[in-house]
Amino acid sequence: MNTESRKIILIGNGCVGSSYAFAVTLLGIGKELGIIDINKKRTIGDAIDLSDVVSYSAPKKIYSAEFSDCSDAQIVVISAGLPQKEGQTRLELLNSNLNLIKEIVENVMSTGFNGIFLVATNPVDILTKAVYKYSGLPKNQVIGSGTVLDTARLRKELSQDLGVDARNIHAYIMGEHGDSEFAVFSQASIGPIKLREWLTDMNPNFDVNFYFNKTEMKVRNTAYDIINLKGSTYYGIARSLAKITKAILDDDNSIMTVSTLLEGEYKENNICIGVPAVVNKYGVVKVIDMELDDIETKKFKESSKIIKDRLKSCNLQD
After folding, report:
1. Are 115 and 2 a contacting pair, CB within 8 Å?
2. Which of 23, 50, 84, 114 gives a 20 to 30 Å CA spacing to 17?
3. pTM
């Protein structure tokens, strides 16, 4: 497995891909960035444009790439595919994006690639399983963006409501990156204090359950709100992908709610779904089997079933 090249290949240079390329360049993540897209002229233009950022960030080689450049990459990021449109769910993108993902993975693997796939294309949980199946790589080397963005949105909402730095809020969104995702409020905390305790200490009469339901719904609908206003979402997911990329390249052992293959965790098997996991240069090295309350356990089962049903419909469920 390639764990040292610090070379990133990005496949798909649309709004998400180009925003990701800007994020990793601005933040000085990686030493080399190659960009692949069907629109070759755009990749050349973006490479030149991004190179102008390097003087103010960190040295990086940026160029328009070919699939042959994947052979020694440490990470291949897949953001190619049709984006979610107004009124459309992420699951409705499956049929249009699955064949494209298969073709991409076959092209990458033909080069001898033995790094980590980072999948952003929606529906991300199902397509992460597709990449795992088509690539033949070990499960730790195939990672989906999962609910990393949704978790960031949850922490942002709590931060704004409670007046606490989001970096001191420990709360997670789990499940499908979609309409069945849910917040694990039973384990959420502000610093060392449980979130429920924090809220009731502020106001003993506070309707905590109502607040939890409202906040969860707001986070779940954020993507729809953005799409209705501007047509698509890309900055948040780009920054989330950059965070995962840094965790891999810098061997950070970061805990993030990525989409990864379960083998018994949460009593599920052979599905990729957003769960807290430790990520380092080897990919996903540990799934954290959090204790869920009864309601959260039910939500996780429902979310898992949605993914399993779609996997069966496209022959991806073993």
Report:
1. yes
2. 114
3. 0.95
